[in-house]
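Methods — Computational structure assignment.
A single polypeptide chain was analysed. Its primary sequence is given first, followed by the predicted tertiary structure written as structure tokens.
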Amino acid sequence: MPGSVSTRLQRFNEFLTSPDSLTNKFYDLDDADADRTTAGMKNLDPAWSLRTGIYQAARNRYQNVLPWDNNRVKLRVADGMNDYINASPIVLQAPGMPARRYIAAQGPTITTVPHFWHMLATLADNFAVVVMLTRTKEGNREKCARYWPEDGELGQKLYAGPGFSYLVKLVQARRDPHAACTIREFKLSGGSDGDGNMAAVDKTVVHLLFESWNDFAALGKDQQKNFIALLKIVNQYRSRTNLSFTEEQAPVVVHCSAGVGRSGTFISSDFLLSCIPGPSHSSLISSTSSPSSSSDDSRSHSHSSRVQTDRRFIIDSARFLYPSTTTTTTTTTTSSSSSSSSLSLPLKRFSISEHHNPSLLEKNNDDVASHDPVFDTVSALKKQRMLMVQNANQYVFIYEIVRRVLAEVDESV
């Protein structure tokens, strides 16, 4: 592959030692975020309107963390019913790579627990992944309601709201020591199509609880190994889908307490690491091996061709996210039909266009040396949900994680 991992690591390290400190970069992002929020609160710009969330106080955990009106998850409900949930669809895409989809959500409150399960029930596919990055309580303050049934062989609970009801049953629970997380598998069944009509729902929901991350904090070096292991597990589960390569995968649902700080840091890290080739992260994204004993072998077999294509995209696109000093490279992309073609593409900087979908990291003619993929990714996130990556410590943490994985890949090739 043209351009060594060592070169990419060296280039990436330049961002950590550049005169523009990482903290100042974060403050630039934060200032832009504050401007958008002010425009939304004061109805100065419809693009950043927060009007819907402002009038939904009973469904918000924090009144100052709201989804943009033009980028919020809408519950599937009957006409005239309240479709609000404090959650935002997130899409990140680098050129030449499939889009990666997430939902960033607040930690459910007691009153919004049924809405959360309804959102999960109406996602595409019959398999959903939820990543919870907070304890239910820190000190004496609730950070997230416990929205799942108690552990035990017969652990099950009914969750109902206007026009829908679901039975959630615990299938299994285990602790993963490498990721320092608890993995629970639930069977979600019941209910409604959201329009008041009964419809069969039979879905597996995998819930990963990562409790060692305090609010507003970044993880220490010892916990970084756990975090990287968590990312690997999430992406093993992500591959358990019946969809073809050309179809959209159901998004991974990520939440902490407010659904912005730790959630934004997780999503940024997951996306950036998905663009790095090698065994440390990306090859596990396309793993067809089961992360648990309950995995369906036929499910893995049905999407094996898509998996191989996905891995090819990751390997071929990584040089653009972490470029070498070469100005032009040749990319070979393998399609799902096993045919291939060669594309000669110049190495150009990624940026976010204000006039296009902020999910896409676009190419422009700026000097490649000025490209900072972390900055661009966080900028794209903040345009899809306010306050994503909430402070400078979390922002710097993303660089540390990417550098650590790049170094691991460098050692393995």
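Note: Residues 5-412 form a domain with the Protein-Tyrosine Phosphatase; Chain A fold (CATH 3.90.190.10).
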